[in-house]
Description:
single chain; CATH 2.40.50.1020; five-stranded parallel beta sheet; 15 strands
Amino acid sequence: MSLKVVVADANDASRQAFCRLVTLDPEAEVVGDCWDVRSGLDAVRHSRPDAIFWDAQLREEPRAADPRIAPFVILVANSEGHVRAATGPLPGTYVLRPPDRIAVQDALEKAKAHRDRALLADLAGAVGSLLENFGGSSRRRKWVLVRDGEESRFLRLRDIDWLEADHNHVRLHVGTNVYPVRESLASFERELEPEQFLRIHRSTIVNIERVRSIQPWFGGRSIVILRDGSRLTMSAGYQGRIRPYRLLGS
């Protein structure tokens, strides 16, 4: 899939150089050659580029054209000082004049990665919808898309050992790996199967298949020991959550 690029640069020589360097990448094409704010924003609206080289001197933020088709912004500047002084949200990356092939190619690779992550997120949404509908009445999420280094991959929720809240993120513990997801623990809990996952603390949820034992502790609390040796605290206020699992007469 070709990376669609708009070059918006008020400097004619610089703009021509950027266009020439972009075309050296067989996976990229220039869909807009623009010299001012108006032509640049028009190109974003009509061409829907994946990336745009945007002259810092143009002042206006190119993402403002339409947030639904926001391109990856590569700020063009004469110095790093001009980059720091630029107004608006931070760009995806930047390149300095005069342009050179290595810097432009590096920026294009970052734009491709940004585009691919967006496509993968769209795919995850589509697959998630299919998985929700598969099997009839169940509408709970079965998979979640997580970052794994520079890549993303699908993680099956039942493979999670335990979850913990971390400010506005949830940290998913899977073996020795930890995957942060930008979502509240309360919101994530609603997507979990209640027969498999148990809230044991205001900041902790555990997969009961991973529990080896529960040991009483002081203050009405308990220590939940997982099969891998991890030790989690069950607070006194959540002790009632395990009553439905107790044998009659126990």
